Amino acid sequence: MLDTALIEQLKTIFAGLEHQYTFDVAVDTNHPKKGELLELLNDVVSTSDRLSLKERTGEALEFDILKNGENTGIKFRAVPTGHEFSSLLLAILNADGKGKNLPDEFIAKRLKSLKGEIKLTTYMSLTCTNCPDVIQALNAMAVINPNITHEAVDGGIYKEEAEAKDLQGVPSVFADGELIHVGRGGFGELLNKLEAKYGKVEVEAGASNGASEKPREYDVIVAGGGPAGVSAAIYSARKGLNVALLADKVGGQVTETGEIKNLISVPETTGAQLTAHLKQHMEEYSIDVLE
Question: Contact at 8 Å (CB) between 185 and 134?
């Protein structure tokens, strides 16, 4: 399924894995997608001796990602090809503590303070361009907070289940059976919705790990993650200043824009592409992004 060039790329990507990962596959013997799923996962496994696969008979089609034999909280009820192939790769890297999509310490602390056990389910489509960001954010949450589990469900495979939910679009995110989000979204926006639903444990100052946390200090804090805010953050960082950018999501309203044809020197782009370029540009500098 994967071509030789891609397999070689994956060997490089997974060369630094520090733990053992297993695709724990449960699939019905006669499922029409069984062969496609096993071919995909076996190709991925072939790229690193840190990866393995075990198969057992199940009622439908799904697989969990295990880390050193323990469940990471990430499940795919899908054959993650197309736009979701990157979600599969990032799930492994995130479980290993790697990946630029992982939040900073402040956001991670907020995530860990959510109350109770949380089961998240995202219904998606392999052709959906907005789905990967949401699925990757929720997978990262499951890795960081052991009380969170997340499963990504292909509505094309689980048609009856998806139709019963009367979905108005994808991705559609359910938290313990309640719809909390539809459409494009980032880590910060999704975390805000989880905090609103579940609440968070308030930690007194100095109570974390038995020691007070050192405040972070910045020369400049930019409020807003749109093109103007990102531009201000980058120009400040280029001057040697210690910069943080505070936003609900990088890109701001641009993320909701389809076709863009009025950006000087760029004849045509989309909101999603411009947002990706904004993030990529900021990664060239030491800018703390607080979404």
Answer: yes
pLDDT-based confidence at 204, cuts 50/70/90? low
Over residues 146-196, the pLDDT tens digits come to 999 999 999 999 999 999 999 999 999 999 999 999 999 889 889 999 999
234 and 95 in a single domain? The answer is no
Question: Comparing C-alpha atoms, which of 150, 134, 141 is closest to residue 109?
Answer: 141
- Give the domain-ending residue among 163, 198, 233: 198
75 and 157 together in one domain = yes
Cβ within 8 Å of residue 228, ≥6 positions away: none
Residues 253 and 285 occupy one common structural domain:
yes
Residue 166: give the domain boundaries: 4-198
Question: What CA–CA distance (Å, rounded) separates 243 from 60?
Answer: 49
Q: What number of residues does the chain have?
A: 291
**Pairing outcome for strands 70-77 and 61-67:** antiparallel
Q: Is the pLDDT of residue 210 over 50?
A: no
**Separation between Cα atoms, residue 226 and residue 224, nearest integer Å:** 6
For residues 25 and 147, state if they share a domain: yes
The amino acid that residue 137 corresponds to is: A
Specify the residue for token string 């749109």.
226
CA dist list (Å): 194 to 168, 190, 276: 20, 6, 24
Burial (CB < 10 A; 0-12, 13-18, 19+), residue 209, is exposed
Q: What is the CATH number of the domain that holds 165?
A: 3.40.30.80
In a domain, 203, yes or no: no
185 and 247 inside one domain: no
Residue 291, amino acid? E
| Token couple for 185 | 């979204």
